[in-house]
């Protein structure tokens, strides 16, 4: 048996060696064939060979051995072949930096070509190579391209300056490239302006003390004028820059808002979100309440339009809308219906819509929302049904006038006898009892009828809490708690803790009838339970009951504060930080970019006055951005625009995991 196993292993190893040898031979044969084709005297065959090389490179095959053969084909007027070869060079430049020098003459020659597309392609490729060996050869062509007669070449050269600065900042400064890009901010072509802004902002992010990008009112006006003719990506760059600019006066802030508003009608959702970011930021500097209200209303249609996009775009829009509503809940307070879930919405979209609907819920629209949530609670997806039931409980706690209707809906759901529906409903009703003590005890008999359906730890804990809290009004409370005692040692710690507390409450109400039960529970908890929390609490109860029963009654049966709901579930400073990154990945994650990006430098836009004050400071003062408007005035306007809710301050408030829809 051992011999046959050894023979099998040897045959397997031999087969693997043969296969690897065949694959290696095939690869060598393929590379040999490609090398032969690349050196063919026929142009069509060389072109086809270059395409095959790029195809192999794209799927991850190593074709770096053909570097010199590919370089030989750079001398061509065929723009398609030139693009493919330049792509090949970018991919393998770092692994063959010494061979890239062989292509320098062709690059320099192409920057003098009569075709602006070839000139731009050459300077862009040289910037993308990121090899120190070619930096000295890049400076002269780059200087010419920054002054090229073609705007396409100039805008490409502007981005190349940012790439060069990342590799060799000293060379960039010494050759005056930053000053040349700054001059492009006055270019007649809006595409050149937008690329110049992009390059300078990138340089400023890497070196804030460089003061590469200084904004002043005339420059802001130029950027706003360029918005109408820029590409969508250029518009995003300019809007992002303007959002970081501090206006010198309220009149300037109002003027900027008026010129940004047309961007709300753009077909690109990212442009729309960037425009909204500017408006939200500038609300802090607008003194006219009527204008602020008017601008807020103009944000509604574009946000609603985003919800008709593809599901993936909808999700991004919904995550951003969630942040916007926390700052300005009045923007969509009449548009709840657009967030109703469709039958073909993916679950991730439904969850976000549900979170926004409960945020928009108020005294005027809760009827429509509850009717919709009741429908959701009858769907087939278990997780979505649970979230819908939680949302019903959230509405009951948030809006007192809606609590009666919410209870009736929850009782209807209990009557369905669907296991997971019953489980979640009991948990939600427990929270409603905490919000409205002594109001809805009449539903307890209905809850007791569902005792056989309870099997989840959270539901058991909620049900036991209800029994313990209302023990004086439940005649057979001791029998119900006895039923849970049968598997006490097998229960989760949270169930054990609630059961122990409920038994103690029952004992304090009926000491003569339940003395044996409480002793048995405390003995099991202290001697047989594995959970240290359960044992510790049992010792506490045992000692306080044995030393001072009246003190135990005052502590255990004390009136508890009612729970409350806080819609502002993100801290104000975090919310403002995320709104500054609206339309980015940070606004989708609901986490600042500094938490998941290694290099996350916030765009530093310096005003002219701030630059002057910085230069007058000692060298150790660091980077300063001095807003012309006083921070106090801005803070007062911000408070007037949208007063934030108070942050959670005590245990009486609802736990986000219990009632709020998970973001």
Automatic annotation (TrEMBL):
Q: Where is the composition biased (Low complexity)?
A: 631-644
> Which positions fall inside the Clathrin/coatomer adaptor adaptin-like N-terminal domain?
28-548
Acidic residues bias locations: 654-663
GO MF assignments: clathrin binding
Q: Where is the composition biased (Polar residues)?
A: 618-627
TM region positions: none
Q: What positions belong to coiled-coil segments?
A: none
**What keywords are annotated for this sequence in UniProt?**
Membrane, Protein transport, Transport
GO terms for cellular component: endomembrane system; membrane coat
* Signal peptide coordinates: none
Query: InterPro entries recorded for this chain?
Result: AP_beta, AP_complex_bsu_1_2_4, ARM-like, ARM-type_fold, Clathrin/coatomer_adapt-like_N
Q: Spell out the residue ranges making up region: Disordered.
A: 612-663
User: Where's it found, cell-wise?
Assistant: Endomembrane system
Q: Which GO terms describe its biological process?
A: intracellular protein transport; vesicle-mediated transport
Record's function text: Adaptins are components of the adaptor complexes which link clathrin to receptors in coated vesicles. Clathrin-associated protein complexes are believed to interact with the cytoplasmic tails of membrane proteins, leading to their selection and concentration.
Q: Which family, according to UniProt?
A: Belongs to the adaptor complexes large subunit family.
Protein name stated in the entry = AP complex subunit beta
Q: Which gene encodes it?
A: APL2
């Amino acid at each position: 048996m051992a011999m046959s196993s050894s023979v099998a292993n040897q045959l397997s190893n031999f087969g693997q060696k043969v296969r690897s040898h065949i694959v290696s031979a095939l690869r060598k044969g393929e590379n040999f064939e490609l090398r032969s084709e690349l050196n063919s005297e026929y142009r069509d065959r060389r072109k086809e060979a270059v395409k095959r090389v790029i195809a192999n490179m794209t799927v991850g095959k190593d074709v770096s051995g053909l570097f010199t053969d590919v370089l030989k084909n750079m001398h061509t007027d065929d723009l398609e072949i030139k693009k493919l070869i330049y792509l090949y060079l970018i991919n393998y430049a770092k692994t063959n930096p010494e061979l890239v020098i062989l292509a320098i003459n062709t690059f320099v020659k192409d920057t003098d070509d009569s075709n602006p597309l070839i000139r731009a392609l050459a300077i862009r490729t040289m910037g993308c190579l990121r090899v120190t060996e070619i930096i000295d050869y890049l400076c002269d062509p780059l200087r010419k391209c920054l002054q090229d007669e073609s705007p396409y070449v100039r805008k490409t050269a502007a981005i190349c300056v940012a790439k060069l600065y990342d590799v060799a900042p000293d060379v960039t400064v010494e050759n005056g490239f930053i000053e040349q890009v700054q001059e492009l901010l006055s270019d007649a072509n809006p595409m050149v302006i937008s690329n110049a802004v992009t390059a300078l902002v990138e340089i400023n992010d890497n070196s804030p003390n460089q003061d590469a990008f200084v904004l002043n009112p005339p420059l802001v006006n130029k950027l706003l004028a360029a918005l109408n003719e820029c590409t969508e990506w250029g518009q995003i760059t300019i809007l992002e820059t303007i959002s970081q600019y501090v206006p010198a006066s309220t009149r300037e802030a109002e003027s900027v808002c008026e010129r940004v508003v047309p961007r709300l009608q753009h077909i690109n959702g990212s442009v729309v979100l960037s425009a909204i970011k500017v408006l939200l930021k500038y609300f802090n500097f607008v003194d006219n309440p009527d204008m602020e209200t008017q601008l807020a209303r103009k944000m509604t249609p574009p946000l609603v339009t985003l919800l008709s996009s593809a599901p993936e775009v909808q999700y991004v829009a919904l995550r951003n809308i969630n942040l916007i509503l926390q700052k300005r809940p009045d923007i969509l307070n009449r548009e709840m219906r657009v967030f109703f879930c469709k039958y073909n919405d993916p679950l991730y979209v439904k969850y976000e819509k549900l979170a926004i609907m409960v945020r928009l819920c108020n005294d005027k629209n809760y009827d429509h929302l509850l009717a919709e949530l009741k429908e959701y609670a009858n769907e087939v997806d278990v997780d979505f049904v649970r979230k819908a039931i939680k949302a019903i409980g959230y509405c009951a706690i948030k809006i007192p006038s809606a609590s009666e209707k919410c209870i009736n809906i929850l009782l209807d759901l209990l009557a369905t006898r669907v296991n997971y529906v019953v489980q979640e409903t009991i948990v939600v009703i427990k929270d409603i009892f905490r919000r409205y003590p002594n109001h809805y005890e009449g539903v307890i008999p209905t809850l007791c009828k569902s005792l056989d359906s309870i099997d989840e730890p959270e539901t058991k804990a909620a049900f036991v809490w209800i029994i313990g809290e209302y023990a004086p009004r439940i005649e057979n409370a001791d029998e119900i708690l006895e039923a849970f005692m049968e598997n006490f040692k097998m229960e989760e710690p949270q169930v054990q803790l609630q059961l122990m507390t409920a038994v103690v409450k029952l004992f304090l109400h009926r000491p003569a009838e339940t003395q044996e039960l409480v002793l048995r529970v405390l003995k099991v908890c202290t001697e047989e339970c594995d959970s240290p929390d359960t044992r510790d609490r049992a010792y506490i109860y045992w000692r306080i009951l044995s030393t001072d029963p009246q003190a135990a009654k005052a502590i255990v049966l004390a009136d508890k504060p009612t729970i409350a709901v806080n819609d502002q579930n993100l801290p104000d400073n975090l919310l403002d930080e995320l709104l500054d990154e609206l339309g980015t990945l940070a606004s989708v994650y609901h986490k600042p970019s500094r938490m998941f990006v290694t290099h996350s430098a916030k765009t530093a836009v310096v005003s002219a006055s701030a630059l002057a004050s910085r230069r007058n400071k000692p060298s150790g003062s660091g980077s300063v951005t001095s807003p012309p408007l006083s921070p106090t005035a801005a803070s007062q306007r911000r408070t007037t625009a949208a007063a934030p809710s108070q942050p959670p301050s005590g245990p009486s408030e609802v736990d986000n995991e219990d009632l709020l829809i998970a973001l």
